[in-house]
Amino acid sequence: MMRRFQRTIPDVDANWATNIVVLLLIFFIVITSVDADMGLERRLPPPVGKYTPVKVEPRNILNVFLTDTDELICGNQIVGIGELRILVKAFISNPKNNKELPEKEIKKIPLLGNMAVTSKHVISVQCGRNTTYQAYIDVQNELVGAYNELRDNLAQKKWGVKYVDLSIDRQKAISACYPMRISEAEPQLSKGGKK
Amino acid sequence: MKKRFITHEKLETSKLNAFALPTIFLLLLFFFVMLTNIRKDKLQVGAVNAPQATELSAIGKKAIVTTIYIGKPVGKLATPSRIQLNNMILTVAGVETYMKKKRAMLQPDEYSLMTVMLKVDKDTPMGVVSDVKQALRRANVLNIIYSARPE
Questions:
Q1: Which long-range contacts (CB under 8 A, 24 or more apart) does A12-21 make?
Q2: Does residue B24 sit within a domain?
Q3: A34-43, A162-171, B78-87: lowest mean pLDDT where?
């Protein structure tokens, strides 16, 4: 009598699975949008009527105005977008305690001790109704950039690292030194603009 | 006896082992599935080209995000609207009522997490954008993000 040999187990044909998975893979690669949701964060003022407008001293306000033709007016003069960051940095930090620039207040900040902070400054951004969005975002970007640079400088001075690399407690301390105070005012009615 | 030995050897000549391949592809597949966020709403307003900026921050993970698109005006209506919210083309007043409704559905401790992502075309006049912003203010939804592309 012939003895049956024990056969080796046949290979499972895995090609079909590979093909399907590859197809799915390609599908998802195509569908994936890598653009992570990034942007400039802002906080709007509370609804009208729920708060009383605070009076701000003139030295504490920096008016930034964008005209309908995308011209930038900072304070009283026309400036280029490249100059804005320097002006804003000087305004926020007021290094020489200039009488024209925002007043400083000594504040006790955890981890840092007593710091002179321009806690009452306000940067007011206004624009016409026909200002383009790109110009507005450029201005907002420069403002955020100015704050980020000041915070980075302080972080480098105190701990020798960049602001983003600090622990959360330290980040809070640094941002308390340079509080972001940008006002989102309503647009002004301008000539030629439609209501 | 000899014959048997030969057949055995024939079976031993194995194919290239492809078992690992599906696994690798599956891993890649999962990776891309995780990465993908399927856009539920199709863009109905005109093209939205995000403006460029450098100082961007990512959106918070816990945020309850509503996306508002403002593109180029479309439609044959007398007053073309260019604001889109969840597959609907809305007016400024419509945005306000929608956000108020959405806010009413949430728990009070979730109010501060509500965030509106504004995806606005870079050539839009600011008048439209500020109208939307004022509507959001009236609806008491105060966190906004101006969507932008890194340069």
A1: A14/B18, A14/B19, A14/B21, A14/B22, A15/B18, A17/B22, A18/B18, A18/B21, A18/B22, A18/B25, A21/B22, A21/B25, A21/B26, A21/B29
A2: yes
A3: B78-87
ipTM for the whole complex: 0.71
pLDDT at A24 over 70: yes
Q: Under a CB-based contact definition with an 8 Å cutoff, are residues B123 and A130 in contact? A: no
Structure tokens at A27: 């599908």
Residue ranges making up the domain that contains B87: 52-150
* CB-nearest partner of A47 from B58, B122, B138: B138
The pTM (predicted TM-score) of the whole model is 0.74
Per residue in B133-146, pLDDT (tens digit) is 888 888 888 888 88
Residues of A in contact with B144 (CB under 8 A): 41-44
Residue B111 belongs to a domain:
yes
Q: For residue B40, tell me if it sits in a domain.
A: no
- Give me the residue from B51, B142, B147 closest to A134, CB to CB: B51
